[in-house]
C-alpha cells in the first residue's frame, strides 16, 4: 500500500514548509530567558524543551523552572497526583470541574490563593540578567500575570499556548503577549480577555518531519512493525489515560489498520493490551519521531503536543473517544482549524481511519497541517527573542522585593491548607454535581489505599468495549 508521504506533491510541500530558519543574529552574553512550565503530563515540558533549544541556538542563556516544584510544602505534588488520579479513576468528575471553572472564567479563589503562594519563590528563582519570562502552563501564567500587575516583575511576561483550545485559566491579566499556534486558539484567547495575541505557529522538535519511503521502511523495521500493512498509531499522552484499550480493540476488529499503541508510563496498560493480543503495544517510547514515520495515521484523545508533532511529521490525525475537559475542547478546536478529524460516532471510525490513511481526506488534512510550519522564521521562539531583545535591560526583580518575607512557616502552613482545601473542594464539586458521587469516592479511595497498591486497578477507561457502544 503506497504511503501518502511518498507522493511528489507532499515532498514538495514538506521542502517548502519545513526549511531551516535563517541563521540567528548575534546575542549578548548576558541575555537570559526563563521558561516556567509544570511537570503535568509531558506536553507543557515538551514545548518548553523545544523553546529552550531554539532560544539557546539563538544565543540566549535559557533557564527552566517547574512551577509545581516552587509551590511550598510539597503542594505541587498534591496537585499533580490529584489531577492524575482523577483522570484515571473518575474522568467524568474532571469533566464537571473543567466545565465549572471554564464557565467561571478560571479556577476560583482557592486556585488564586494557591498560586499566590508561588509568587515570591518564582521571583527568587529568576537568575540575574533575565530579559523575559515565558510560561507554557496556565497556572504559571497566572503567577507571572499577578507579578506583572503588582510591579514585582519588571521584564516582559509571555505565554505560549500549548493547546489549540484555550481554557480561561490560560489568560491572565498582566501577561504582555500571548503566543498562539493558529488563529483558532488566538481567537479563543482574545475572547477570554487577552490583549496582545500573536499567531506564531507551533513549536516542535525538528526530528518530526515528513518521511520518505526509505525512512518509513527503516522505522518499521526498527520497531518490528509490518512492512506493508496500514498502521494506526494510537497515543494517550505520557500517562496513558482514556479508553485506550477499547480503541485498540476496535481498530483490530475493523481490520482497516494494524493498531500500534503507545501507553506512555502506564506499563500496566501496555501489558494488558499484549495479553489481549495487541502485538504492538509499547510503554514509554524515546523515539516518537521514528514511530510516527512508520505510521499512516495517528489516533489521539487529548490534542496536545503529540498532535502538533504529528502535523510536522505529515501524519493525518484523528481525535476519537477523547478524554474529558481539554481533550474534547482540543478536538473541537483542531477540527475547526481543519488540521484533524474529530470522530464522534463509533460507526464512522473505520471509514474515517481508512480515508485519512489512504484517501484524499488525508492528503487535504496533511497539507493544511504542514502549512502551520510554512514560515520557519516566525515561530514562537523567534517572537520571544524579538520581544526579549527589544525590552530595556534591567533587573527582572526590584532588589527590595527579594528580601525573605517574614512569617514564612506560617505562610507555608497556610498555603498547604489552601492546597488541601482546593483538592477537597474539587472533589466536593464533583460529588455534589453528579449522581455518581459514591462511585467517585470509592474509586479514589481504592486508588489511595496503601494495602491495595499491589493489585491492578480496573478502571472504566481501560475496560474492553461494552455492548452498549460509545457513551458520550
Give me some keywords for this one.
single chain; 19 helices; alpha/beta; six-stranded parallel beta sheet; about 475 residues
Class from secondary-structure proportions: alpha/beta
Query: What is the radius of gyration?
Result: 23 Å
- In total, the number of strands is 12
Instruction: Identify low-pLDDT runs.
Output: 1-29, 403-407, 409-472
Helix content: 40-55%
Shape: globular
| Major β-sheet annotation | 6 strands, parallel
Order of adjacent strands in the largest pleated sheet: 2-1-3-4-5-6
Summed over residues and divided by their number, the pLDDT gives a mean of: 78
Please count the helical segments: 19
Distance between the termini: 34 Å
Beta-strand fraction estimate: 5-15%
Can you walk through the features of this model?
With 472 residues, the chain is of the alpha/beta class. The protein is built from 19 helices and 12 strands. It has helices spanning 8-17, 43-57, 67-70, 75-89, 91-104, 108-125, 138-149, 183-191, 213-223, 244-254, 267-275, 288-294, 305-312, 326-337, 346-358, 360-370, 380-390, 408-432, 437-448; strands at 32-37, 61-66, 130-135, 157-160, 177-180, 197-199, 231-235, 258-262, 280-282, 297-300, 317-320, 341-343. The strands form 2 sheets. The protein has a 6-stranded parallel beta sheet, with helices on both faces. Strand 3 (130-135), helix 7 (138-149) and strand 4 form a beta-alpha-beta unit. Helix 5 (91-104) packs across helix 18 (408-432) and helix 6 (108-125) runs antiparallel to helix 18. The chain is globular, with a radius of gyration of 23 Å. The protein starts with 7 loop residues before the first helix and ends in a 24-residue tail after the last helix.
Amino acid at each position: 500500500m503506497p504511503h501518502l508521504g511518498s507522493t511528489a506533491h507532499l515532498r514538495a510541500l514538506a521542502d517548502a514548509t519545513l526549511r531551516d530558519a535563517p541563521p540567528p543574529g548575534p546575542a549578548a552574553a548576558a541575555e537570559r530567558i526563563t521558561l516556567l512550565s509544570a511537570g503535568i503530563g509531558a506536553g507543557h515540558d515538551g514545548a518548553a524543551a523545544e523553546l529552550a533549544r531554539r532560544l539557546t541556538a539563538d544565543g540566549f542563556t535559557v533557564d527552566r523552572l517547574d512551577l509545581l516544584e516552587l509551590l511550598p510544602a510539597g503542594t505541587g505534588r498534591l496537585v499533580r497526583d490529584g489531577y492524575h488520579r482523577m483522570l484515571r479513576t473518575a474522568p467524568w468528575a474532571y469533566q464537571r470541574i473543567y466545565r465549572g471553572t471554564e464557565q467561571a472564567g478560571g479556577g476560583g479563589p482557592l486556585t488564586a490563593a494557591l498560586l499566590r503562594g508561588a509568587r515570591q519563590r518564582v521571583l527568587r528563582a529568576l537568575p540575574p540578567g533575565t530579559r523575559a519570562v515565558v510560561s507554557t502552563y496556565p497556572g504559571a501564567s497566572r503567577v507571572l500575570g499577578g507579578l506583572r500587575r503588582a510591579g514585582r516583575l519588571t521584564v516582559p511576561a509571555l505565554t505560549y499556548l500549548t493547546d489549540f483550545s484555550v481554557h480561561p485559566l490560560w489568560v491572565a491579566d498582566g501577561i504582555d503577549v500571548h503566543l498562539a499556534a493558529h488563529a483558532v486558539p488566538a481567537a479563543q484567547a482574545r475572547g477570554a480577555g487577552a490583549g496582545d495575541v500573536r499567531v506564531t505557529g507551533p513549536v516542535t522538535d525538528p526530528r518530526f518531519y515528513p518521511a520518505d519511503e526509505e525512512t518509513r521502511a527503516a522505522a518499521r523495521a526498527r520497531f518490528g512493525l509490518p512492512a506493508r500493512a496500514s498502521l494506526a498509531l494510537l497515543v494517550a499522552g505520557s500517562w496513558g489515560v482514556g479508553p485506550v484499550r477499547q480503541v485498540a480493540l476496535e481498530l483490530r476488529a475493523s481490520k482497516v489498520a494494524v493498531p500500534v499503541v503507545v501507553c506512555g508510563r502506564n506499563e500496566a496498560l501496555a501489558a494488558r493490551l499484549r495479553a489481549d493480543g495487541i502485538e504492538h503495544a509499547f510503554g514509554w517510547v524515546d523515539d516518537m519521531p521514528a514511530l510516527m514515520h512508520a505510521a499512516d495515521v495517528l489516533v489521539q484523545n487529548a490534542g496536545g503536543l503529540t498532535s502538533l508533532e504529528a502535523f510536522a511529521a505529515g501524519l493525518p490525525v484523528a481525535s476519537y473517544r477523547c478524554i474529558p475537559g481539554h481533550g474534547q475542547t482540543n478536538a473541537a478546536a483542531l477540527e475547526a482549524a481543519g488540521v484533524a478529524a474529530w470522530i464522534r460516532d463509533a460507526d464512522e471510525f473505520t471509514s474515517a481511519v481508512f480515508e485519512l490513511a489512504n484517501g484524499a481526506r488525508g492528503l487535504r488534512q496533511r497539507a493544511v497541517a504542514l502549512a502551520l510550519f510554512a514560515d520557519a522564521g516566525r515561530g514562537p521562539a523567534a517572537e520571544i527573542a524579538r520581544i526579549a531583545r527589544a525590552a530595556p535591560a534591567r533587573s527582572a526583580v526590584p532588589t527590595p522585593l527579594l528580601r525573605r518575607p517574614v512569617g514564612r512557616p506560617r505562610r507555608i502552613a497556610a498555603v498547604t491548607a489552601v492546597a488541601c482545601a482546593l483538592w477537597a473542594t474539587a472533589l466536593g464539586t464533583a460529588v455534589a454535581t453528579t449522581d455518581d458521587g459514591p462511585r467517585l469516592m470509592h474509586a479514589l479511595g481504592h486508588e489511595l489505599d496503601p494495602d491495595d497498591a499491589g493489585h491492578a486497578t480496573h478502571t472504566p477507561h481501560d475496560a474492553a468495549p461494552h455492548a452498549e457502544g460509545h457513551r458520550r
